[in-house]
Amino acid sequence: MTDLDTLVGDWLTLPDLAEALDIEVGKARGLVSDRHVIGIKRGERTTFQVPALFVLPDVEGRPGVIPTLRGTIMVLADAQFTEPEILEWLFTPNDELGERPVDALIHGKRAAVRRVAQTLL
Questions:
Q1: Within 13 Å, how many C-alpha atoms sit on residue 109's CB side?
Q2: If phi over 0 gives left and psi between -120 and 50 gives alpha, with beta otherwise, what is residue 55?
Q3: Do residues 27 and 67 touch, judged by C-beta distance below 8 A?
Q4: Cβ distance 7 to 13 under 8 Å?
Q5: N or C terminus: fewer CB in 10 A for the chain?
Q6: Is 38 left (phi over 0), alpha (psi -120 to 50) or beta?
């Protein structure tokens, strides 16, 4: 297993995620339980954290979660990937995409990312 801290970089706790999205912590928990975002327990106190890169400004400049992330998470979960494995896949450069899958999603390349992800099924 690769070191996720090195791959991912910045992380957000649930309160940080809620603050970044300007929502209540309960709604941030809902994003996790509905798999709009995923994360792992990490850090000194093993708090649940999600990659900060999952939160981006939308076209109007308001913060939001990468809109196509949930569907990609679902495809990888269908391939029996665990959450740490999904994170590793999203943040590892992919030769077929020419970039990390998470960056491809940010750049609007949902179909290409899903096509590569479906080869894992």
A1: 15
A2: beta
A3: no
A4: no
A5: N
A6: beta
Under the banding of pLDDT at 50, 70 and 90, the label for residue 21 is very high
pLDDT classification of 24: cutoffs 50, 70, 90 = very high
Question: For residues 2 and 84, what is the distance between their CA atoms, to the nearest angstrom?
Answer: 10
The predicted structure's pLDDT at residue 2: 61
Closest by CA position to 90, among listed 80, 78, 105: 105
Task: Evaluate whether 43 touches 49 at the Cβ level (below 8 Å).
Answer: yes
pLDDT at residue 1 greater than cutoff 60: no
Write down the H helix ranges in the chain.
4-8, 14-21, 25-33, 69-78, 83-91, 101-106, 110-118
> Tokens 């106190």 identify what position?
45
pTM passes above 0.70: yes
- The pair of structure tokens assigned to 94 is 């992919």
Q: Tell me the residue type at 65.
A: V
